[in-house]
Design a protein that fits this description.
- The protein is an alpha+beta fold and 384 residues long.
- The strands form 4 sheets. Strands 1, 2, 3, 4, 5, 6, 11 and 12 form an 8-stranded antiparallel beta sheet that branches. Strands 7-8 form a two-stranded antiparallel ribbon.
- Helix 8 links the parallel strand 9 and strand 10.
- Helix 3 packs antiparallel against helix 9.
- The protein is globular and about 55 Å long.
């Protein structure tokens, strides 16, 4: 049977419209477990999970590394509701970890972890990852922010996913929150980005054009048993048929919930903008090399980056790009109920997370003290 005649695989069936309407949100953040005696990573995820409430157990899960966990919100209509979920789970996690003599924090990387000290989680999925990638899986853990946005139909999802590729470098620049790696200043705003690049099937996917092309591309990998299922494609942006969402995965995890809220608002507004207006130009969508170079510039320089505009054939500073996008997104934010959170994107320009870490470390006696400061902000309310 030829590709044109092949019946589409069941995994690719799009889940359809969402009960709460279009552009619903699901937010996932990865975080680290810490030993407060040394502020090193603590490989004790199996001690934590059974102690959580039933509700939290449904929203907190293990990750590849035994010192990491992921928090997932409920499906929510607004940014405020989703971030309230994150904060609620952070509070319970902090209280539960205290009974275990542990702490938690969020950053794109742990500032002084080294791969020799890393343990892989025991779950079947993570042992498969280790079996597939061998010692690559034992590199220092990285911590990302993932944002799902609900899309009612598959063709719109692929069209928006193709367009959102253009915005990935800007989102990375704003979120960059991992300047330290193996105990030293990496010189990068997001050291997480090249670290995670050691994994296969990562980075910016190509533009697929149609859902059939996307589904057949992924299904070939599944049929040939290169991957067991579609979620083993760790692209910076990907359609999620089972959830009826596109998932933006390029961003560093954020130490403070209020910074997470700003980034989630920008993602939600950009998805709506691209779905309804098609803001990104055809040239920008087709410029894979430009998107990839911009991604590197964003990881290196954060909000100080100047990104390439293929239409104007020049580089534009991130603050200027942000100012233009915020103006265009503002009407969409009004309709989505996230005006306040979207406006807070400017705080990421004025007080970028990576520079905040560097400043804290400069005035601290050790990187352990930096980790302690990150942990102090884990359950901090957005208004604090």
């Amino acid at each position: 049977m030829s590709a044109g005649q092949r019946v589409r695989a069941a995994w690719s069936d799009w889940s359809g419209a969402h009960e709460l309407g279009p552009y619903t949100l699901g937010v996932e953040e990865e975080a680290m477990l810490l030993d407060p005696r040394t502020w090193a990573l603590a490989h004790r995820i199996d001690d934590l999970l059974p102690r959580l409430s039933v509700d939290a157990q449904n929203h907190v899960s293990a990750e590849t590394h035994g010192s990491a966990f992921e928090v997932q919100t409920n499906v929510r209509r607004t940014v405020g509701e989703a971030v309230d979920d994150l904060l609620r789970f952070r509070v319970e996690l902090e209280e539960t970890l205290e009974t275990l003599g542990l702490r938690a924090a969020v950053s794109g990387t742990h500032p002084f972890a080294i791969w020799q000290e890393i343990a892989i989680s025991g779950g079947e999925r993570y042992q498969f990852v280790y079996g597939s990638m061998r010692e690559l899986a034992r590199r220092e853990p990285t911590f990302a922010l993932h944002v799902h946005v609900g899309i009612p139909d598959e063709e719109t999802a692929v069209r928006v996913n193709d367009r959102m590729r253009v915005h990935l470098p800007l989102l990375l620049a704003l979120s960059a929150n991992s300047p330290f790696w193996q105990g030293r200043d990496s010189g990068l705003a997001s050291a997480r980005t090249p670290l995670f690049q050691a994994f296969p099937r990562v980075g910016v996917p190509r533009a697929f054009g149609t859902y059939d092309v996307y589904a057949e591309t992924v299904d070939l990998l599944i049929r040939t048993e290169a991957v067991p299922e579609a979620t083993f494609l760790w692209w910076d942006a990907r359609p999620q048929p089972a959830l009826g969402t596109i998932e933006i995965r390029v961003m560093d995890a954020q130490t403070r919930c209020r910074d997470t809220a700003a980034l989630v608002a920008l993602v939600q507004c950009l998805v709506k903008l691209e779905a309804e207006q098609g803001y990104a130009s055809d040239l920008a969508i087709a410029s894979q090399e430009v998107i990839s170079e911009n991604r590197f510039l964003a990881a290196r320089d954060g909000v100080d980056a100047a990104l390439i505009d293929p239409d104007l054939e020049t580089r534009i500073p991130v603050p200027d790009l942000v100012a233009d996008l915020l103006a265009i997104c503002r009407p969409h934010a009004q309709e989505l109920g996230c005006e306040e959170e979207l406006a807070a994107v400017t705080d990421l320009i004025e007080d970028p997370p990576a520079k905040r870490q560097i400043t804290t470390a400069r005035h601290a006696p050790s990187l352990g003290r930096l980790v302690e400061r990150l942990s102090d902000r884990f359950a901090e309310r957005p208004g604090v």
